[in-house]
Amino acid sequence: MLNLAVLLSGTGRTLDNFHDQILAKKLDADVRVVIADVENALGLKKARDYGYPDFYAKNSANTNAILANYQVDLICLAGYLKLYQPPPALARRVLNIHPSLIPAFCGPGFYGHHVHEAVKARGCLVSGCTVHFADGLYDHGPIICQKAVALDFGDDADTIAKKVFAAECLAYPEAISRVAALGVDYFWQRAGQ
What we know:
With about 190 residues, the protein is α/β, with parallel strands linked by helices. It folds into two domains: about 1-90, 3-Layer(aba) Sandwich (Rossmann fold), CATH 3.40.50; about 95-193, Formyl transferase, N-terminal domain (Rossmann fold, 3-Layer(aba) Sandwich), CATH 3.40.50.170. Helices cover about 35% and strands about 20% of the residues. The protein has six helices and seven strands; from the N terminus they run βαβαβαββαββαα. It is globular. About 40% of the residues are buried. The mean pLDDT is about 95.
């Protein structure tokens, strides 16, 4: 079982997914702590309701000070909108989920609905999500899992977002399970790092 820290900025939908997957015994993990960089993030209230320790931290240094009090195997960025700088001991143990098939529609400025609007504007017929290890650059680092979704010509950005989030709900737990099975180093070595 892996101990998770979940970092978020908003509603906590990915936290909901983790919680549900753990309760259903589909994800062998334990959420040890939830930290938000937005003081009134709905995700913090959800964490409290689920019984997870929850904290507000305005930056990476504050976040890392909190994490020092918890035994954590992986840090899962779950709609966390800042570029996070982990402590050295956890530098290769930060996972992120991005709402596109990296390397498409990623990097600075590509997050959330901005991605789906860009996908729609380009006329893509496939989108998806990517779970990867974070390496200090936006949407960069060894890929763990990707899920593709088919798009229809009439899909608007909201419809694309719903399709992609459904894929995210499968991909992130699958990625955590892959890391548990193969180990962190496997993915970094596979990427030549």
